[in-house]
Specification:
homodimer; alpha/beta; Helicase, Ruva Protein, domain 3; Dna Topoisomerase Vi A Subunit, Chain: A, domain 2; 3 domains; two-stranded antiparallel sheet; about 40% helix; globular
């Protein structure tokens, strides 16, 4: 017997498609929305409805933006000759929050994952090569995640850009700030030892 | 500097209002929706838009339903003289899933919580009293949660219905099925000892 009304069931099914949301959470969210005033649900619906019409990809860095070029590519105060390559717009948001990066970005929109059928042609990699080939880039900072596919993508990019004159760099790996050394995992600790940095003022 | 486009920022703010969804999860969900085809986002938007127009409260049990009476109240196979009182439609869904309850329901839409300004008049309690006073109910099974406000609401209902001829019952409390006794919390274990049940066929 169908206890959940069809309209509610459809919303639950929609929500279950979102990442990290199972059937129980989706039901809880849908019932919450139903209990709240109709205006709140309609507001969320409206913001969803206009989302894809309002936001497009910046033609230069391929981030999500309402303007083209995006606010960063169009900002003369940012160093367009330093390009930080990230997997997703969410990674760019995280780096921007630090406030220390003054260059521009290049969003790949994924990582190379042959098992999922994602090769270089499915990502914005050709566009990165063209951007570098145009001679307007001095340094490419590869900021893919330190996961297996992230590292594989970084290696691919490094090899692809090997015969160009561009300077290549990678985010530093090591002990996270505030972490007790005895709780660091062995791979991170090994990397931190190998990549040890000299103390300023000493030789 | 605004790195997140305003339309995306509005969606993130909407999602943050949902229970259990913080800023990070909301950002992850919004970026996911943006990466998926526009049709998927619009589908979710549509289902949200029609939700409150399609679903109303059953006039008898006050559950969410597209029909009035709801599928359970309108089913002659259900025992309308046995009424299970729950806090929320989600509780009703959980009980229906067990498949063992053949009566009808009464949804309070909350619990008595004086600190939050929620007294009996804010809940469907007057309607329960009327339903019982009409003489069409033999047993009221109080199935509020075994939390402090749930127990307080149950006590209030029991007192309110004391001078009626209706039979009152409460969900059994005890050790959850499959639980190792040494991991049960002391309150649950104390309740299980106090409410011990006699073994059938013995005296």
């Amino acid at each position: 017997m169908q206890i959940i009304p069809p309209a509610l069931e459809r919303l639950i099914a929609d929500l279950t498609r979102l990442p990290g949301i199972g059937r129980k959470t989706a039901t809880r969210l849908a019932l919450y929305i139903l209990r709240r005033p109709a205006a709140e649900g309609r507001n969320l619906a409206h913001d969803l409805m206009v989302l894809h019409d309002t936001i497009h990809l910046c033609h230069q860095c391929f981030t999500f933006s309402e303007t083209d070029p995006c606010a960063i590519c169009g900002n003369p105060g940012r160093d367009s000759r330093l390009v930080c390559v990230v997997e997703e717009p969410g990674d760019q948001i995280a780096i921007e929050k630090t406030g220390v990066f003054r260059g521009t970005y290049h969003i790949l929109h994924g990582v190379i994952a042959p098992m999922d059928g994602i090769g270089p042609d499915e990502l914005k990699i050709r566009e990165l090569r063209q951007r570098v080939a145009s001679g307007q880039v001095d340094e490419v900072l590869i900021a893919t995640s330190s996961t297996v596919p992230g590292e594989a993508t970084a290696s691919y990019l490094a090899e692809m850009l090997q015969d160009t004159k561009v300077r290549l760099s990678r985010l530093a790996c090591g002990i996270p700030m505030g972490m007790d050394i005895k709780y660091a995992d062995e791979h991170t600790l090994a990397r931190a030892v190998e990549s040890r940095q000299s103390v300023p003022g000493r030789t």
